Amino acid sequence: MATLRETRDRIRSVNSTKKITKAQELIATSRITKAKQRVAAASPYAEELTKVVARVASATSLDHPMLSERENPRRAAVMVVTSDRGQCGGYNHNVLKKAAELEEHLTDRGLEVVRFVTGKKGAAYYDFREMEVSGAWSGFSENPEWDITHDARNHLIRGFEAGSEGQAKWREGLNGTRGNTVQGFDEVHVVYTEFVSMLTQAPRVQRLLPVRTNTEVEEYAPESMTRVDGHVAQDMEFEPDADTLLKELMPKYVSRVLYSIFLEAAASESAARRTAMKAATDNANELVKDLTRVANQARQAQITQEITEIIGGAGALADSGESD
């Protein structure tokens, strides 16, 4: 059984750890608020861009490389979005598990998987298991910025445009020799953590490219009207033509979607860290209560033993005095 001094030392150690976990919980809570504000601030531009792309696409034949399925796809890129730091519960484990399931599915389809990862934890995971990673970017998992994520976003877009038979420009973060070109791919999938609520974050797979289009049954409308997002709008003439506009807008649209994924993953990471640190703080409180109870019992036993020794000593002195 631990001595009273050892128990008190352990209580001090747990209290010190509790201060750290509590501070991490408060920091994560403040970052969740900021991350949600960033998502809200980016929403107006994303929504308007989506409307513009939808309106332009409605005036074209949808014959665009980013909207068309490749006839014989051979290579598929998988971007795995993880965190730069730990202490976030099962956040990284869940997304890496989901990525493994996706890779198995793509392999069953006969596709060669090209793996990319953001976040130091994901890069370390694959490096430890000696699994090839074609590109890795880190340093922005909690606070993604448009400029910092530029290389990651643009490589996925340019690599898809090149296709499995073409070559894309080398960028920072990619493996290989600087300046050399790298082989492209025919599909792009992103595995990230969706922010459902403060307590729930779910790993999700999204096919980024080619972009899935919704084909619905057309409803009657006058010839001078066209439907966009379910609403009837006036037909428009585009300058330059709609096909040229769509060619320029699609890379921007896909890049914005990927950036929104980074923002949502950042909010999910902070929420997961807050939940994990709150659980650690609660466990520390319970452990301190248990250890305090053990310390009190040990102290009580020590006092009882001292009283017993005093009474025993007094009795011995009394007996020796009577014998004299």
Automatic annotation (TrEMBL):
It is a peripheral membrane protein. InterPro entries: ATP_synth_F1_ATPase_gsu, ATP_synth_F1_gsu, ATP_synth_F1_gsu_CS. GO terms for molecular function: ATP binding; proton-transporting ATP synthase activity, rotational mechanism. It is found in: Cell membrane; Membrane. Its main location: membrane. Keywords: ATP synthesis, Cell membrane, CF(1), Hydrogen ion transport, Ion transport, Membrane, Transport. HAMAP family: ATP_synth_gamma_bact. The lineage of its organism: Bacteria, Bacillati, Actinomycetota, Actinomycetes, Mycobacteriales. This is ATP synthase gamma chain. Belongs to the ATPase gamma chain family. The gene is atpG. GO terms for biological process: proton motive force-driven plasma membrane ATP synthesis. F-type ATPases have 2 components, CF(1) - the catalytic core - and CF(0) - the membrane proton channel. CF(1) has five subunits: alpha(3), beta(3), gamma(1), delta(1), epsilon(1). CF(0) has three main subunits: a, b and c.
